[in-house]
Amino acid sequence: MGTAQNVLEVEQLETVFDTPRGPVAAVRDLSLTVGRGEIVGLVGESGSGKSVTGLSIMGLLDRPGRVAAGRILLGGEDLRAASAARLRQLRGNRMAMVFQDPMMTLNPVLRIDTQMIEAVTAHDPGISRRAARERCRDALGMVGIPSPDERLTAYPHQFSGGMRQRVTIAIAMLNQPDLIIADEPTTALDVTIQAQILSEMQNLCRERGTALIWITHDLTVVAGLTDRIYVMYAGSVVEQGPVDDILDTPRHPYTHGLIGSIPSANIPGQRLYQIPGMTPPIDRMPRGCRFRPRCPNAQPLCQEPVALREIGAGRQLRCNFPMPSQDTP
Question: Would the pTM of this model clear 0.85, i.e. be above it?
Answer without folding.
Answer: yes
